[in-house]
Specification:
Elements (H helix, E strand, L loop, with lengths): L1 H24 L3 H15 L5 H12 L2
Helix pairs in contact: 1-2, 1-3, 2-3
């Protein structure tokens, strides 16, 4: 259970990253930008630096 509490921001961040990427592909840029912003907010809460960096790198590729 402790693992999930530490990992939750990572998973929520990636959920927003996926939504942002999908909406970007659909041409919904405003919604994509909102979701990317939320994903970045969650990425900043990720404790593991390599996981945080991975998420931020993926966000940068949208």
């Amino acid at each position: 259970m402790a693992f999930m509490n530490l990992s939750l921001p990572f998973y929520i961040g990636y959920a927003y990253e996926a939504l942002s990427r999908a909406n970007a592909l659909l041409g919904r840029t405003d919604l994509s930008k909102e979701e990317a912003k939320l994903a970045l907010e969650y990425a900043q809460k990720v404790k593991d630096e390599s996981s945080k960096d991975m998420l931020i790198k993926d966000l940068d590729s949208i």
